[in-house]
Amino acid sequence: MTTLLLSTGWHQDEWLANWRATAPDRPILRHGQDDYDPAAIDYVLTWKPPAGVLRTLPNLKAVFNLGAGVDGLMADPDLPPVPLVRLVDDDMTYRMGEWVILQVLTHFRQALAYLDVQRKHEWREFEQPAANAARVGLMGYGTLARHCAPILLSLGFTVHGWSRSQRPSDITLYYGAEGLDAFLKRTDILVCLLPLTEDTRGILDAGLIARLGGESPLGPVLINAGRGGLQTEADILAALRSGALKGASLDVFNEEPLPADDPMWDAPNLVITPHVAAVSDPTSTLRNIVRQIEAFERGEPLRNVVDTIRGY
């Protein structure tokens, strides 16, 4: 059973070494660097694959995405009719939880204001409401949001979520287009964890920002760890400058790296991180994938298979 590493813009040598350490009895080849017979490839490990390559592998059994978002994979207009498997890994989930909680607390506990007065050598205290004065809305209620919700609740925040469709939940969950307005009106700190699809592209725009409740004296705040394509950056910049948004944290952008002359760098009360909220760890990711392959070869179904109609 031969595996092909098919990635764009990633450090292939690191992934290759980790695969050989994790699965020494499973051959692996690199697209663009190793000669291979397309008919010999059974599995593909990929990140943003070049369009059309997957269709050239006639005996392909499954494709495993090496990151959380599958928009790069779904951009291929000629995908083969095999299971496409999303990365759902405990290590990535924990990392994302760390980043989300850090950003919520950064804005709620006014860390940026305190850093500003520190630079000015001022000893100054700001009034601080209790956590239960703020309502955190988790937009996109999948694995990552379900991990974040109980942590935020344990800190005292009021937490609710929004999902495309109804699903079981331990918190108040709004769903569908009809539930979005009520969700936004009850949200002071919006945490976006949506996948990027044609339905969600550009959803974080001026219209959405205007619908946020912001009843906390420190809100509204926008936090996006999903995909850059979800946000209309000119609208976010304008909202930060006008005060319609009291703060924001963005880990993702439409263009990455963010150009050095982009005005977002100088936006007030904005935290920028370079798409590092939940970086895939090769060791943990590949152990997860190998376990999936072994179970699949025993006749068990693959988990976390992409719904190609929904796009995630």
From TrEMBL:
Q: Which InterPro entries match?
A: D-isomer_DH_NAD-bd (IPR006140), NAD(P)-bd_dom_sf (IPR036291)
Q: Is this entry keyworded NAD?
A: yes
Q: Which GO terms describe its molecular function?
A: NAD binding; oxidoreductase activity
Where the record annotates domain D-isomer specific 2-hydroxyacid dehydrogenase NAD-binding, the positions are: 103-277
Question: Which keywords does UniProt give here?
Answer: NAD, Oxidoreductase, Pyruvate
Protein name (database record): Glyoxylate/hydroxypyruvate reductase A
The organism is Acuticoccus sediminis
The major lineage groups are:
Bacteria, Pseudomonadati, Pseudomonadota, Alphaproteobacteria, Hyphomicrobiales
